[in-house]
């Protein structure tokens, strides 16, 4: 059996903020067959997390690429619907911790509140007045503030 493997590629390494024209959608025929003695598997990607740290993976060089193995630079043409995973690649099954898979895959608010015991959490993109939101959710102040969205915040 053969499938059409759609993938998104970067045209070249990106230095600076990525723009839509830096990417390209391509198709490639992929046979869904591997030799049993190769320890290779073919995986259908249902969800892909695009996290802020991945911007450094798109650059021609970033110090994080040599510091940690999961932040290696992306070679142009390496994101796809179907992936041929070789034995030397880390492969982990996604565990949604009892939440539906369609829940946000970044920081899931229900996960933070219900499973991990945080006092509260909110989606800053849904709030218009951050100062008022912080006062409403955390009237006694905040001990730890973690913001990993990697974008500029609007001035209040």
Give a structural overview.
With 156 residues, this protein is of the alpha+beta class. The chain folds into two domains: 2-85, Medium-chain alcohol dehydrogenases, catalytic domain (Quinone Oxidoreductase, Chain A, domain 1), CATH 3.90.180.10; 96-156, no CATH class. Helices cover 16% and strands 18% of the residues. It has four helices and five strands. The chain has helices at residues 54-58, 63-67, 109-115, 130-137; strands at 2-10, 23-31, 41-44, 79-80, 82-85. The chain has a three-stranded antiparallel beta sheet, with no helix packed on it. The longest helix is centred in the last third of the chain and has 8 residues, at 130-137. It is extended and about 60 Å long. The termini are far apart. The mean pLDDT is 77.
**CATH class categorisation of the largest domain:** Alpha Beta
Q: What order do the SSEs take from the amino end to the carboxyl end, as H and E?
A: EEEHHEEHH
Q: Count of helices? A: 4
CATH second-level architecture of the largest domain:
Alpha-Beta Complex
Number of spatially distinct domains: 2
How do the strands line up in the largest sheet?
Answer: 2-1-4
Please provide the count of β strands: 5
The outline comes out as extended
What is the share of helical residues? 10-25%
Q: How confident overall, as mean pLDDT?
A: 77
* CATH topology annotation of the largest domain: Quinone Oxidoreductase, Chain A, domain 1
Radius of gyration: 20 Å
Biggest sheet, open or closed, and with what strands and sense? Answer: 3 strands, antiparallel
Helix and strand arrangement:
Layout: E1 2-10, E2 23-31, E3 41-44, H1 54-58, H2 63-67, E4 79-80, E5 82-85, H3 109-115, H4 130-137
Antiparallel strand pairs: 1-2, 1-4, 3-5
């Amino acid at each position: 059996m053969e499938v059409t493997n759609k993938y998104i590629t970067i045209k070249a390494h990106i230095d600076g903020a990525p723009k839509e024209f830096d990417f390209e959608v391509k198709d490639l025929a992929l046979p869904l067959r591997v030799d049993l003695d190769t320890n290779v598997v073919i995986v259908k990607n249902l969800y892909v997390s695009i996290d802020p740290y991945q911007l450094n993976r798109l650059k021609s060089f970033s110090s994080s690429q040599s510091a940690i193995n999961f932040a290696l630079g992306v070679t142009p043409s390496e994101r796809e619907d179907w992936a041929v995973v070789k034995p030397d690649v880390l492969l982990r099954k996604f565990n949604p911790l009892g939440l539906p898979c369609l829940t946000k895959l970044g920081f899931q608010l229900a996960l933070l509140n219900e499973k991990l015991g945080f006092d509260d959490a909110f989606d800053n993109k849904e709030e218009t007045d951050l100062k008022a939101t912080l006062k409403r959710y955390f009237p006694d102040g905040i001990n730890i503030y973690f913001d990993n969205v990697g974008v500029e915040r609007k001035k209040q």
